[in-house]
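User: Just a sanity check before I run the rest of the batch. Below are the structure tokens for the first item. I only need the designed sequence back.
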């Protein structure tokens, strides 16, 4: 059987801990879904092709969605709600610096976003953003994080629950992601359990 991989966040450059995570990925776990759609809070206008703004959520840009869907047409995407988008040019800061060029006044990473007003023009400049929707298979993830092969039916993108768990991906989705956004994903071989 084909190899299966776990999709996750890569080691980030710049590596500013939680501050870098908030700036690069934003947040989807802060607000509940709105009629099944993720609500995104993030900076703009820069956004990487693939981001991980929640516990397990995977968000892609329109260009990335088009490219991935052309390679793996079985994937499902759901538009998300750009609820709170703020202007920040953090991508112009020195990426090799030990710390960000500026911190939120509160010192809390989330306040890069929450302490600033929503900017509709910046939200528009982000373009369409999409949640990569997993197939949900209860029991697919073992307690040790392995993939339970007795539950796997060849899905390209699958996880245990909608809001948590490892993102298991097929070899062809791994190949597509590595071709389209190699610096924005980390793919590790999943351990299999019968």
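Assistant: Here's the designed sequence for the first item:
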């Amino acid at each position: 059987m084909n190899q299966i991989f776990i999709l996750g966040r890569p080691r980030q450059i710049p590596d500013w801990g939680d501050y870098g995570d908030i700036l690069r990925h934003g947040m989807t776990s802060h607000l509940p879904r709105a009629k099944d759609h993720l609500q995104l809070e993030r900076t703009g206008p820069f956004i990487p092709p693939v981001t991980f703004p929640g516990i397990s959520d995977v968000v892609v840009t329109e260009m990335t969605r088009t490219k991935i869907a052309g390679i793996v047409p079985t994937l499902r995407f759901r538009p998300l709600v750009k609820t709170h988008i703020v202007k920040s040019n953090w991508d112009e800061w020195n990426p090799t610096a030990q710390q960000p060029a500026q911190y939120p006044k509160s010192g809390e990473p989330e306040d890069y976003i929450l302490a600033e007003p929503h900017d509709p023009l910046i939200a528009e400049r982000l373009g369409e953003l999409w949640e990569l929707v997993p197939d949900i298979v209860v029991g697919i993830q073992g307690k040790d994080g392995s993939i339970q092969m007795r539950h796997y039916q060849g899905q390209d993108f699958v996880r245990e629950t909608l809001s948590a768990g490892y993102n298991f991906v097929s070899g062809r989705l791994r190949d597509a992601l590595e071709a389209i956004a190699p610096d924005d994903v980390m793919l590790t071989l999943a351990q299999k359990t019968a």
